[in-house]
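Chain X:
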Amino acid sequence: MSLTDAQRAVLEGWGRRRTTAQALAQRSRIVLECADGHSITEVSRRLRVTADTVRTWRRRFIERGLDGLSDEPRPGVPRKITDADVERVIVKTLEEKPKNATHWSTMSMAAATGMSQ
């Protein structure tokens, strides 16, 4: 398995950063170890994960690249609040003040946007 310099830089960054989700950091370390020529068994032993975990993330990286290391959407009820709704509330929170108040409460924001608390 081979990596481009850009892919290696991104994976190393994900593995090092404190703010990276731990699952993504571990997946990054798995791919880096595999790219360095270590066997699946050796990677699983070194990173203390199962061989199936190593196989899964190695395969997903080969098939989809860096995007393959992200979590896939989970089954269940679709979201009721869209990304546009979230953005609208954030912009309103940061750029506007409610009448007769110093900040938005969940109740006042819900009334202003037509959304539930």
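Chain Y:
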Amino acid sequence: MRALTWHGRRDVRVDTVPDPVIEQPDDVVVRITSSGLCGSDLHLYEVLTPFLSPGDILGHEPMGVVAEVGPGVTELSVGDRVVVPFNVSCGHCWMCDRGLQSQCETTQNREQGTGASLFGFSSLYGQVPGGQAEYLRVPFGNALPIRVPHGPPDDRFVFLSDVLPTAYQAVQYAATPTDGTLVVLGLGPIGDMCTRIAAHLGVRQVVGVDLVPERLSRVAARGTTTLDLSHGDADVLDAIASLTAGRGADAVIDAVGMEAHGSPVAAAAQRVVAALPSGLGRKAMETMGSDRTAALELAIGAVRRGGTVSLSGVYGGSATPMPLLTLFDKQVQMRMGQANVRHWMPELLPLLGDDDPLGVDGFATHRVPLEQAPKAYRMFQDKEDGAVKMLFTP
């Protein structure tokens, strides 16, 4: 089959690789019809390179049609249409029973000290082949894949793999009062969807912050107040203060993470670590890695005293500094973590009817053949051509 594989920093290629096969009785093999390109994929493309090996198959937002089932699969049949959550979770362990699929005890990576394995996301999370490919082996076929109806286009359902549950969890963790103000930092796919979900849930004032004009105008077109970060942090903080009687936002979602703009020293350090041989780079990141924290610092500055910061942007630095005095003094609550995809399905599936309140049918900005994926990665990394959300089709 053809699949997108990693070969080095900013070097991904579409290669011919062996087809996946049934390995366990409850495995299924899915023929991929659409697979998303996510900001988390860019972390692998640019920063987390010490944790990848040449030939690793990327991608964690796939959907498709079941092509083969193992002898122990009872909940799916060949021909069923499914979305595959990015968490590799068993569905029956202590963590899964409590809705914490991102911490699944069956697939936890204890040697790495990390949670559940993830599709297409490095040796930190199990080195499981991903879904930017023609086919994907999916374990736990009776519990993991989400069956969806045939008929509507893939765009209706593919975002259940990551974007929708990640954004929904971020909004729920923010716990913004309905009469309050929520600020969303970063208007890529997750941040954009956060603004839509918060508005749908009735939050009175939602404010989106970014510095890419196309992303600002896209969010503003749906009625969200926007602030242009290119004017500087101070102007953004002043604007938030003026919108909130000087107190700051009730909650702030950081949908940016480790590669924030405005962190030149940390950015340089990340490039140095990424360029090291894999063993040295991995050790450096595990012991003294630091993230670009400009977005996190802005979130802490923008939130009111007693407010909440919700982190959906990925952070991975083991030595990233935190302004604990400010957090303590402002009595800030923080919630974070990988989305527990399966946990949010009862709330999300009813939002995917034909009325489409979240605008999922038109959410993707680009649809690209898998063979053009390397170009798409470069375009998305450099935020060219209004790229917010890309879908690959084999």
